[in-house]
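Thought: the user asked what Rrf2 family transcriptional regulator looks like in 3D. I have the sequence; next I should run the structure tool and report back without guessing.
Action: structure_tool
Action Input:
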Amino acid sequence: MLFTKESDYAIRIVRALKSSEQRNVQEICTTEEIPKAFCYKIMKKLRRAGIVEAVRGAGGGFRLARSTRELTLYDVIMAVEPDFSVIECIHHFCNQNSGSKHCKVHAELLRIQHTVEELLQKKTLYDILEG
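Observation:
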């Protein structure tokens, strides 16, 4: 559950657009080996999150709406998977939790969840892709 194919593809899309040039879906799919139908679905989510923008017209395509210097892996993953978690019970029902008390396993997994989120927020995509 940690990282889905959708997150992987979203990160690849941003990587394909990192140069600030606009690219069409076919170019992105070929370069990053992403199925076209998946790419359109993910682009819609990335647009909604303000990460990419569409360029209309005959030579249209997509480009990053924000600089890689301000984007993190966390931003990209949250755009496509807002319920991202290391295990399903982090955000959903766990029959071992009662009231405000978490079972010890859930408490440890929650700590791991927060650590993963902090690591994903720590470096920008510029640091990762260019640095």
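Thought: the tool returned a structure. Summarizing for the user.
Final Answer: Structure for Rrf2 family transcriptional regulator predicted. The helical segments are 5-17, 25-32, 36-48, 73-80, 104-122, 125-129. Residues 74 and 117 are 7 Å apart (CA to CA).
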